[in-house]
Amino acid sequence: MTTTKKLEAIANNLWWTWTPRARTLFEQVHPEAFAAAGNSPHAALRAVDEERLADPELAGEVDAVYDAFKAYMEAPSEISDAPETAYFCMEYGLHESMPLYSGGLGVLAGDHTKAAADLGLPFTAVGMLLREGYFHQSFDENGNQQANYPPLDPEKQPLSLVTNPDVEPLRVSVPLGDATVQVQAWEAKLGHVSLYLLDTDHEGNPESLRGLTRRLYQGGDRERIRQELVLGVGGLRLLRALGNQPDVYHANEGHCAFLMFELMRELMETGHTQAEAEAAVRQESVFTTHTPVPAGHDRFAPKLFDTEMAGYASEHPLSVDDLAAYGRVNPDDDTEEFVMTVLGLNLSRAANGVSKINGRVAQQQWDDLYPDLEVDDVPIGSITNGVHLPTWTAAPARDFLAVHTDGDWAHERHTPEFWAPLAEVDDATLWAYRSKLRARLLNYATDHVAHQSLDMEADLDPDALTIGFARRFATYKRAPLIFTDLDRARALFADAERPIQILFAGKAHPDDEAGQAFIRRIYEISQQDGFRGRVLMLENYNMEVGRMLVSGSDIWLNNPRRPMEASGTSGQKVAAHGGLNLSVLDGWWPEGYTGTNGWAIGPEATGVFAPRGPAGQKKEDARDAESLYTQLETSVVPEFYTRNAEGVPKAWVNRMREAMTELPPAFSAKRMVIDYVNTMYRQPVEQV
Ligand SMILES: *Cc1c(COP(=O)(O)O)cnc(C)c1O
């Protein structure tokens, strides 16, 4: 095989995105083109010339990486007899060069799919080709968020158009209202796993329908329900056209739940009654619900549902009214909105939230669906999220772990035994590791803000306690909480001996004015005395910015209102880098926090779902700000700056050691996917 062919084979499998050596290889092929296209191997390959490829050193590296790729592809499955699974999700966070995600849900789906690939599961994923995926964020000189939608060209991505035997695009049709849309798909490969990305943006559709798969979570309800018909119904029709007959369907969040209607249609068309079809669909479907935010669940007004589902119902043995009943808490109440989550719960055999608290909250949220059951018996369990460590662990951290852990990263990183030897690493070595990763981040951040339009210059101290805060700027995540009391905050930031500094990143939804105001507020504070240069707002939070922040921050700050954090995964990414969480006890953190491997803000979330009014929120905000300041002033900052004769903060390093041995295996995506296989995908399933 020629060097070019090998490079193409590697570039065409997203394995390269979580393999540092492969990534570095493409960077070496053509550094400028690689970086200019958002770290894209395809861009590097398009730009490279023959001469460069003929370089024997490069060719040798290509051979080595290709051999590693082949070994990955030929490795046997780690789980025997896993059922064949089709996984549906609206968004996937795979890599910064493929912006098909807006936040945590997508990143989780990407990590799930990658871990399924690593485990060698029989697994197929279905999503959307979002050509204008989520926006590129920049700031104007006043800190106003600007949203741009640079179009993604699938021809320039590691994607191939799915074709039929005549080498024409394979297309399936989906009725939408009184129209019909033709859906095609692009295939991405992650190891042996195929991810099919549905696409309506082609010449076979009228302009009014082409845009349906272009953007994420925009447009009105009509566009949304149509998008969801494309995902659920179109996705299953595509799998069938490819001859795919999985044993289990995993609907990840409600957006894709129409897939269950399509499964019912198939069964009823082969002669089953409605009751039989319902029971059979339930046997083969599992459902994951994430959001405790009531507005986060798609709801469609009865009239809209009737109009938009009319065409689909004309192909279905059931009427629009029959279909509508599956999405209502009270099936007989035709004034109720149709809720996708209710559909998912009604037609699945098992359902889960994404952390223990989130599962309990979901039980309360959907209690009315199960009038005969006590809240504790509502059949929604939990599988706590985890992160794909190869994606999120920085290359220098991988090198460090290779020396100081015991076992095989590829196969054993989800086991406590793999991480246990870190308990024996001496203080100075661990502290040098932390300092090196911090310095790497500060260089990156300084450079990043220098390229922004915002008037903001970094003045970062390589030895100062560095806090990272990156997430969507939804208001319940309370990004500016640390600035509640500006004098108290200034005392922390401007301390001559023991200063702190903070790096923010995050996008607000383009329609979320309050979230955008948070960005402006942080910008304004960053211009004030005592904060200048030490409070930075990095534009365009994406997977690259995320990787840098989670690897370099000493403290990962997380302070949402309880119990709004479904799981949160960014805090899980810091542990392997020796970063420590300072977090509200919500989402995953109560399961990870021992009292000595990080810090808590405020009391534990009770898992009681009682959304507060504005007065209650104000009280909660004040209490949590007080707790945050107290933790920083009395524990976090003193521990960081109390050094022994070697210059090492002993108590701090002890916390690091604990976090590094305990958290990465427990909150790894491999552990998570193994849990899904054992408790959700395998039959028969006991209700969790
Ligand atoms: C990890 C990650 C998320 C999800 O993390 P949260 O803790 O839920 O905010 C979102 N976006 C990016 C880019 C990430 O890397």
From TrEMBL:
NCBIfam families: more_P_ylases (TIGR02094). The keyword Electron transport does not apply. GO terms for biological process: carbohydrate metabolic process. This is Alpha-glucan phosphorylase. It holds the Pfam family DUF3417. The modification N6-(pyridoxal phosphate)lysine is found at K573. GO terms for molecular function: glycogen phosphorylase activity; pyridoxal phosphate binding. Keywords: Allosteric enzyme, Pyridoxal phosphate. Belongs to the glycogen phosphorylase family. Residues 5-98 form the DUF3417 domain. It comes from Longimonas halophila. SUPFAM superfamilies: UDP-Glycosyltransferase/glycogen phosphorylase. It catalyses: [(1->4)-alpha-D-glucosyl](n) + phosphate = [(1->4)-alpha-D-glucosyl](n-1) + alpha-D-glucose 1-phosphate.
